[in-house]
Design a protein that fits this description.
Blueprint lengths: L3 E11 L13 E10 L8 H8 L4 E3 L32 E9 L7 E3 L11
Antiparallel strand pairs: 1-2, 2-4, 3-5
């Protein structure tokens, strides 16, 4: 992408009541990522970068009648939550994390990256 680089650094499934999903009512899949601001624009933060890169969110294709877009869950990392909306300086890197509520534990989860909201599929 022109303005950012986003790299997923790890992911994991977190059961109910485990660290990172203490208050959830279903297991979640969590993704950790690094965002680099390549442009210096004053609008780039880790959370906005995630949704610009993955505007459809996470899909778990386990419903024969509809696209099963997963709900965003509580933030999975108490050490990163304070910087989710922090503006990133040009050439700076901030880490972020996001979690989605799983509807089952066997169907794969799909992320589709795009070149910004409304952009081409990467």
């Amino acid at each position: 992408m022109e303005d950012i680089d986003l790299k997923i650094t790890k992911y994991k499934v977190i059961p109910v009541e485990a660290e990172g999903n203490e208050y959830g009512d279903s297991p979640v899949i969590a993704f950790w990522y690094d965002t680099t601001d390549k442009s210096g624009k004053d609008i780039i933060d880790p959370l906005s970068a995630w949704f610009a890169s993955f505007p459809e969110g996470a899909i778990q294709d386990n419903d024969k009648n509809k696209v099963n877009k997963l709900e965003v869950a509580m933030h999975p990392d108490k050490n990163l939550v304070k910087d989710q909306m922090s503006k990133i300086k040009k050439d700076g890197i901030l880490s972020g994390a996001i979690a989605y509520k799983l509807t089952d534990l066997t169907t794969p989860v799909k992320l589709t990256a795009y070149k910004g909201i409304g952009g081409i599929e990467l």
